[in-house]
Amino acid sequence: HEYKSIVSNFDQAMKGKYTNIIKIERIQNERWYMQYLAHSKDFRKRLEMNTEKRLYHGCPEQAANAIIADCFNRSYAGVNGTVYGVGVYFSSDATYSHGYTKPNASGERCMFLSRVLVGKTTKGNSTMRTRPLGFDSTTDEKHIFVTYHDAQALADLKRQNFLLQFDHRRTLTVIEESNATVYQPMNDVRFYSLDGGVTHKDSDWANEFRSRVLGKPSIKIKSIHIHHTPDIFDPDEDYVGLIVYLCDEKNHFILNNVHSQTGDIYIRRSSWIFDNTPKRRKRKAYVHGRLFYSIFRCWKKKKMNLVGAGFSYCKGTWKFNSRTLNTMSPNNNDDTYHNTDRKLSISEERIIRTMCCYFYINHEWLAMPPEERIPFHALKQLGLTEEKSQISGRVNDISEVDPDRRLRGKVIWFDVQKGYGFIDVTGFQVGMFVHWTAIDGMTRRRAFLKHGEDVEFHVVQSDRGWKTRKLTRLKP
């Protein structure tokens, strides 16, 4: 989906100016990410709003390689003009940035699609060598933005920076599969880490776990991902969670049409689990088993050979034990990576706790693309800092939610005659408007929602404010 979105936006802006996208690379740099993260938090706290924009930056291939290594360096500012200030130039118009690209020996050009913190802007001029007092960047008040701090834009872990390489000679290549057009996936990913590899000097931050049985593969956690279907955190509620490691000794697997991989985290509200999943005979709460059922639509069985770890948030405290998952039980499990005390290792606890504290409880995951993953090294560095993430009971700005993110909520009111109503979503101060036309697969006569019904949807901005689209009912 990410690839298609980039191609679609680029194609609309560049009609007639290129004929082929050769490749799209995701550039990730851990060192610049940490600086950008601090900068982003400062902007949000100071301005009380999200001022991040996705902008283009065109340059020759040699300059692109320098940006990949050193990010957007202001020491090169002024090479192509200083009309709106002596800084790094970005544009929301791809055709404008295209004017600063140059073909290489093969006739290919490249362009960056970056996440940029524009902050508070003012109109710039050629005399400005730094940002004016009280402002963060300058602009032409149309599509050009000039930044004056190296950490205002970068290729990093959380805010990806994409390098598009294209030419003017060949036709756009697509892969035809049945009757559907499938775009070539982004296989080219360059990742630049600080020290080049994972070290295990700090025993509390190991990311490789070995089985007690010889011949079984190790669990290697390279990245962590909050799955795109969690319930939004409310400190007054209880939650149950699962991190997936292996299934049938594979770190990428599909179980009942659900794709998962090592490091995927699923989190659901406990009350929802109890209300929407069946009970099992002779088992009382069986909360992690029922969480598993809600995800994969089947009960966990030994023959599945699935290895994972269960945790929960109960009465304001994170707990890291589970009878269903974190145990070496020959009766219902083939987990040879844990012992019999139902508890997780210190390293597992560190990984889960840090991910939840820095990306889940403060709703930071809502601003991330649904498939975005946090590399282990970046998470470890966050976990070793003294800063603690604050619990947020509300999200202040719906515009911070990534447009590809699907939200979950509960119908609080719906007028069948008028065909509209409102949905309550934890983390938002007002109810989300829903019109019957937003309900997928429904005609006017059948389009209605029941009070208390659980639904999932995208949000989109209209001339009357934010509303839902592509709404579906959640199956119990």
UniProtKB/TrEMBL annotation:
<dbReference type="GO" id="GO:0003950">
    <property type="term" value="F:NAD+ poly-ADP-ribosyltransferase activity"/>
</dbReference>
<keyword id="KW-0539">Nucleus</keyword>
<feature type="domain" description="CSD">
    <location>
        <begin position="406"/>
        <end position="473"/>
    </location>
</feature>
<dbReference type="Pfam" id="PF00644">
    <property type="entry name" value="PARP"/>
</dbReference>
<dbReference type="Pfam" id="PF00313">
    <property type="entry name" value="CSD"/>
</dbReference>
<feature type="domain" description="PARP catalytic">
    <location>
        <begin position="1"/>
        <end position="187"/>
    </location>
</feature>
<keyword id="KW-0328">Glycosyltransferase</keyword>
<dbReference type="InterPro" id="IPR002059">
    <property type="entry name" value="CSP_DNA-bd"/>
</dbReference>
<keyword id="KW-0520">NAD</keyword>
<dbReference type="GO" id="GO:0010629">
    <property type="term" value="P:negative regulation of gene expression"/>
</dbReference>
<dbReference type="InterPro" id="IPR012317">
    <property type="entry name" value="Poly(ADP-ribose)pol_cat_dom"/>
</dbReference>
<protein>
    <recommendedName>
        <fullName>Poly [ADP-ribose] polymerase</fullName>
        <ecNumber>2.4.2.-</ecNumber>
    </recommendedName>
</protein>
<dbReference type="GO" id="GO:0005634">
    <property type="term" value="C:nucleus"/>
</dbReference>
<keyword id="KW-0808">Transferase</keyword>
<dbReference type="GO" id="GO:0003676">
    <property type="term" value="F:nucleic acid binding"/>
</dbReference>
<dbReference type="GO" id="GO:0003714">
    <property type="term" value="F:transcription corepressor activity"/>
</dbReference>
<dbReference type="InterPro" id="IPR012340">
    <property type="entry name" value="NA-bd_OB-fold"/>
</dbReference>
<dbReference type="GO" id="GO:0005737">
    <property type="term" value="C:cytoplasm"/>
</dbReference>
<dbReference type="InterPro" id="IPR052056">
    <property type="entry name" value="Mono-ARTD/PARP"/>
</dbReference>
<dbReference type="InterPro" id="IPR011129">
    <property type="entry name" value="CSD"/>
</dbReference>
